[in-house]
Amino acid sequence: MHPVKIVDLFAGPGGLDVAAEKLGVATVGVEWDASACETRRAAGLVTVEGDVRKYGPSDFPDADVLAGGPPCQTFTVAGSGAGRRALDEVLRFVKRMVAREDRDEIDQDLSKLEDERTGLVLEPLRWALEAIDDENNTPYRAIILEQVPAVLPVWEAYAVALRAEGYSAECGILRTEEYGVPQTRKRAVLIARKGIEEVTLPEPTHRPYRKGVPREAGDQARRPWTRMADVLDRQSPFRVISNYGTGGDPKARGRRASWEPSATVTGKISRNRVVSLDGAELKRFSLAEAGCLQTFPVDYPWSGRDVGQQIGNAVPPRLAMHVLCAAFGWGTPDEELLKSLKTWRPEKASEPATADIAAEPHVEYA
């Protein structure tokens, strides 16, 4: 398929949009975080600053692909059981939405959730079903969703629902280092395409990282995983000592060396110490370096506040490029396309998605 435009929900600073624009596919991102919108505008990405719940397919009539990565916080709560409760509630709502229960009743019940962010994971399904049911809309030709692994059961429920609506759909857990990202990170991904033609998740191109296993070991048909040293311009080897999620226990601090991929880049990456092999303190990762570990272009114009959090929450553009190509039936992106992610230098921004939304408050286009 040859998509016209992607509408990207919960678009963040533009991880998926960067990949799409490099593939020559226009995008418009809906994002409510003002700082992420500042970055997007600085990058020249078409941006609607607002709440996804206040929009729908009719606001973006020329978008034929739906993408999104809803907030994940309520699904990753440990210990209290809140994550489990959130998941059970969401799966019940999925069934109600697919059964086309009264939307006002569903919205009323969603408002009773203990954390309103829980219901946001249902927004892509709302958009997809509205595009199917509204005679003035055309069903999305492809749908791409990603989130933390804990959200996989939701994507599985989505896949069942979308297959019943005439889509081919597949979902699963992808490891970012298996796609050349210099970082170990797992993402739950769903790909759906309208029609009976089978859709599959992207084929891995690199070997998985295993602590203590040599980089050259494993499936020789795949490339070695990418090292931090391959993407960061540092003159000598180093080690990264994590100071996140340890409870202050030095023994619990993870360690990665420059000849390994980074651990998962989070919004707290500035807490990580960087030391030489003899233990001397070195400069901690800059925001540009953190972006490179996420495979954003080295010159990406990070802007606004909480840039570390913007970077940590984003989908790595390199992974996004693989996922988009799979969703469109294009196969594995070639090295020339992947190398294009190294620099940004955006061309002239795309035209606004629709004139109608220009009157909505907080809508801004780059």
From TrEMBL:
UniProt keyword annotations, A-Z: Coiled coil, Methyltransferase, Restriction system, S-adenosyl-L-methionine, Transferase
Coiled coil: 96-123
GO MF assignments: DNA (cytosine-5-)-methyltransferase activity; DNA binding
Pfam families: DNA_methylase (PF00145)
PROSITE patterns: SAM_MT_C5
TM ranges: none
EC numbers on record: 2.1.1.37
InterPro entries in the record: C5-Methyltransferase (IPR050390), C5_MeTfrase (IPR001525), SAM-dependent_MTases_sf (IPR029063)
GO BP terms: DNA restriction-modification system; methylation; negative regulation of gene expression via chromosomal CpG island methylation
Superkingdom classification of source: Bacteria
First-tier enzyme category under EC: transferase
Active-site feature positions: 72
PANTHER family, alphabetized: CYTOSINE-SPECIFIC METHYLTRANSFERASE, DNA (CYTOSINE-5)-METHYLTRANSFERASE 1
Sequence similarity: Belongs to the class I-like SAM-binding methyltransferase superfamily. C5-methyltransferase family.
Protein name: DNA (cytosine-5-)-methyltransferase
